User: What shape does this take?
Amino acid sequence: MSGLEGRVAVVTGGGRGIGAGIARLFAREGAAVVVNDLGVNLDGSGADEGPAGEVVAEITRAGGSAVADHGDVSLPDTGERLVRTAVERFGGLDVLVNTAGILRDRMIFNMAEEEWDDVIRVHLKGHFNTIKPAAAHWRDRRDPDGHFRIINFTSGSGLYGAPGQPNYAAAKMGIVGLTYSCANSLARYGVTANAISPVAATRMTASIPDDRKKARTVTDDQRAAENVAPVAAYLAGAASDWLTGRVIGVNGYDVTLYSNPEPVRVISGGSRWDAAALGEPLERLFRPATRTR
Assistant: This one.
């Protein structure tokens, strides 16, 4: 019996790319899956019920259990409906996976307010809109041994600061903070919360100009979005109770544990610092500990 047998998962952005790969693997491993995807273009325009419907059809043809949802995760009603659908159709909710997102790339000095708001709304608020009703459901269950899971998606764009994606980077680092908060607040209810930072061939990475891509020779299989799914499947299982409040990187066949923020060096004074006097110890002690990328 697999680690996901009998578990129920919601996967947002599950109609394409990484989300679709996760939904398919979860179903093969025995989970029932609510596949959410609005079916928008990369910039968030349009809508198409086809992607989510196709993934669900594929899962059911293979003997799995899945149902499609075509809602917009930036709307609170969608998150509430996803949790309700999981409970009503499959008897509960064990795992929430948030992969849905859009891009509106622009340098900060050229970015329109709408481009900022739309990306923050879909990514960061979209995570909030699904996590809130899921957390409320698990709180009501009051099962400290429930093995409930929140699996969020961040990005190297946020962890390292992509120059042409200030909105996306801000949203993705906001998701990291949200993940930390959920890990700390929901542990008493049997919930773990982690974030995955993937590198894979998706519509988003295909949109990156060639001159901004890092040179690295990899095979098509190494670039496949499906490489992220096994990590998500492990996090979704009962065996991962020990892991919470962390960021896990997935790049091809490499899986990375990122460090959480922690103090590097501290300068202690006996009274309020004078700005001029502070400069010398800052440069002497802090400067060697910094690095440029």
